[in-house]
Amino acid sequence: MLRRFLCTSALKTLTLLRPKPSLNPTSPIQIHSKLKSLRPFSQMADSRRPLIPAVDRAERLELLRALESSLGSVFSSEPLLPNPSPLIIVVSGPSGVGKDALIRKLTETRPGLHFVVTATSREMRPGEVQGKDYFFVSKEEFLGMVERDELLEYALVYGDYKGIPKQQIREYMARGCDVVLRVDIQGAQTLRRIFGQSAVFVFVAAESEVKLVERLIGRKTESREALLVRVATAREEMKHVKNFDYVVVNAEGKLDNAVKLVESIIDAEKAKVRQRNVVV
Ligand SMILES: Nc1ncnc2c1ncn2[C@@H]1O[C@H](COP(=O)(O)OP(=O)(O)OP(=O)(O)O)[C@@H](O)[C@H]1O
């Protein structure tokens, strides 16, 4: 049956690719010779198999109607399955592991994905863009957002506030977009309490401790004291991997591989029979 399908598909392709109008596409000799030229060498031996003649459009339609009539119902062209539910993907991991770099690339390669821009009271780093990397606000403005219950979660991270605006998530999910949230480990724990299993939690790790430290040093954004705090914290944070659904190693010079892995995770989640249904 499958082979029959493959044969008819090949013939269909040939009909579409018909090169000269003068050729009679139903002539078995011509089709046979064309098929032979299309087949890979490994399949050349199969060319002696009898060919099933091409079914033309009218015949196919007739057969389809006959099947409908036998079944007593019309074949629907509606999708057999609903669209997958929008996902919330929580990306977390130790400081300097490459969360920002990974998300930046991921949103470039996957247009249907929205990165929820976090509000923060920390200073803007060189190269960062207001509203793209973070919403940079003063401490007072941030506390105003907390009071108005505008944040899904917030935390004081290395002396600066960081929080996720609820409205952005609602807006993009209502449009059917998947959303990515970037949080530190503390934030991921809070979000797990809020979402339970209804969101996807991804832990980003470096391939080794020394590579993580080198990356943090290379970023040149922290003082020696601040580096010490981040590195010591990273050791503790690694213990939280077990609370995540997936772990992605972002190895030195292999950012693209890490991005591909996250894409595969999203694809697999979209193909799940039991979808995660999240409400914010
Ligand atoms: N796979 C990689 N190979 C080499 N360098 C990388 C890789 N991924 C990220 N980096 C670099 O490592 C540094 C830290 O990355 P990034 O700022 O994205 O980390 P982060 O996890 O978002 O940190 P933080 O939580 O402190 O904001 C950056 O200079 C970034 O360009």
Unique ligands: adenosine-5'-triphosphate
The domain tally reads 2
Backbone structural class: alpha/beta
In which order are the strands of the major sheet placed?
Answer: 2-7-1-8-9
Give the proportion of residues in helices: 40-55%
Low-pLDDT runs of 5+ residues are: 1-45
Tally of contiguous helical segments: 10
In terms of DSSP E residues, the strand content is 15-25%
Count of beta strands:
9
Characterization of this structure:
Pfam families: Guanylate_kin (PF00625). This is guanylate kinase. Residues 86-267 form the Guanylate kinase-like domain. There is one protein chain. With 280 residues, the protein is an alpha/beta fold. The protein is built from ten helices and nine strands. It has helices spanning 2-16, 28-38, 57-71, 99-109, 139-147, 166-174, 185-195, 209-219, 224-237, 255-270, and strands at 88-92, 113-115, 118-120, 134-136, 151-157, 160-165, 178-182, 200-205, 246-249. The strands form two sheets. The chain has a five-stranded parallel beta sheet, with helices on both faces. It has a four-stranded mixed beta sheet with strand order 4-3-6-5. Strand 5 and strand 6 form a beta hairpin. Helix 4 crosses helix 10. Mean pLDDT is 84; it is low at 1-45. The chain binds adenosine-5'-triphosphate. Residues 93, 95-101, 215, 218-219, 250, 252-255 line the site of adenosine-5'-triphosphate.
